[in-house]
């Protein structure tokens, strides 16, 4: 029985003598999976490496869309106020 039959066709890695071997998705001509040595640290489950990254990107995008227009409007207002006040100031001549 092959490893793909044992794990239902989704082979992520195999532990053998303290080393983890990760499937690279390629197969031999006879249909066996090809594995690469990944060392002694357990690899992450296949497909679960960046599941939280998409949620974080969505949170960042909504925060920027919510806060950036307000901040831009405040900066524009401060710039306009500053430019209006410049001519009113007395000039010091030396």
Word description of this protein:
With 94 residues, the chain is an alpha+beta fold. It folds into two domains: 35 residues, no CATH class; 38 residues. The chain is 41% helix and 19% strand. The chain has a three-stranded antiparallel β-sheet, with no helix packed on it. Strand 1 and strand 2 form a beta hairpin. The radius of gyration is 30 Å and the shape is rod-shaped. The termini are far apart.
List the helices and strands and how they pair.
Elements: H1 3-6, E1 13-16, E2 19-27, E3 33-37, H2 51-85
Antiparallel strand pairs: 1-2, 2-3
Helical stretch tally: 2
Number of domains: 2
What is the helix/strand order? Answer: HEEEH
The description of the largest β-sheet is: 3 strands, antiparallel
Average pLDDT, to the nearest integer?
75
Low-confidence stretches: 4-8
This entry's quaternary arrangement is single chain
* Cα-atom radius of gyration: 30 Å
- Amount of beta strand: 15-25%
Bin the helical content: 40-55%
Structural descriptors:
94 residues, alpha+beta, 3-stranded antiparallel sheet
What's this entry about, in short?
The protein has 94 residues and is of the alpha+beta class. It has helices at residues 3-6, 51-85; strands spanning 13-16, 19-27, 33-37.
